[in-house]
Amino acid sequence: MTPGLINLHIHIPANGKAPFKNGSTKKLVKLLTSSKIFDPIGIGLGKKYIKQDLRSGVTTLRAVGGVSYYDTRLRDKINANKIEGPRLFVSNSAICPPTGHMEGTVSVPCKN
Question: Which tens digits make up the pLDDT trace of 82-95?
């Protein structure tokens, strides 16, 4: 792989833009995870955004909190040469305290 840029903080399937409304991200994640019917949409969004990064010269991404294992599934498809994409280091969902940062989107609350 050709040397390129590295982005050490992304969330799949987010595009990096600020949400247009307060709370809209949480609503979108709730919708995407409400049924397996929405899986192709979530995977498709993630695939689109990581491909955009690759075409912008980013050859390595580190996902630091994701939704429904989209990041792992995309990484595995890239590693199996089923789709084009940058090298992915993934963590799946982040862990936060109850009502903590990004709870209900890319992090799950820890339990006592």
Answer: 999 999 999 888 88
Q: Which helix (H) or strand (E) holds 49?
A: helix 39-55
35's tokens: 């049924």
* CB-neighbour burial class of residue 67 (10 A; exposed 0-12, middle 13-18, buried 19+): buried
In this prediction the pTM is: 0.85
User: Nearest to residue 49, comparing CAs of 30, 25, 70, 21?
Assistant: 70
**Interatomic CA distance for residues 46 and 69, integer angstroms:** 11
CA distance linking residue 110 with residue 47, whole number of Å: 29
